[in-house]
Amino acid sequence: MGFVKDFKAFISRGNVVDMAVGVVVGGAFGKIVSSLVADIITPLISCATKGANMKELYYCINPNAVEGQTFTYAAYPTVAAAHEAGYATMNYGLFFQNIIDFIIIAFCIFCVIRAIAKAKEKAEEKKKAEEAAAAAANAAEPPAETVEDILKDIRAALKK
Fold this sequence. Notes:
By secondary structure, the chain is an all-alpha fold. 72% of the residues lie in helices and 2% in strands.
């Protein structure tokens, strides 16, 4: 029963729920970034490269695979067409698109982490300033008489 008890304790911690929310939000964020790259950035790159579709950029590894045919990129303009004809391809366009996805996601995560770190830094500075102000206020005021001080004064008066 130790394992089940430990698992319940693990699940009941707030960190697990936060982590689950992070995974769900991260999955949705990944879809948004993929759409940004596929639907906005890639077409812009396509315009800059005079119409080349990044997804369809490939290199034929075995141009002599099909007997009686000479491989030409014009004859097989898409990766799917080259595969259907029996050619093996190295799809570097998709690879570049995934690199762009990664860079955008990494940049966004960096920005979020940096913002959180700056917020924590400001909160710590504010807390230190408040503590310093409280310490200065306490140093300026004479120390309040404690119950012990009063009792010592009463005992001294009784001794007299």
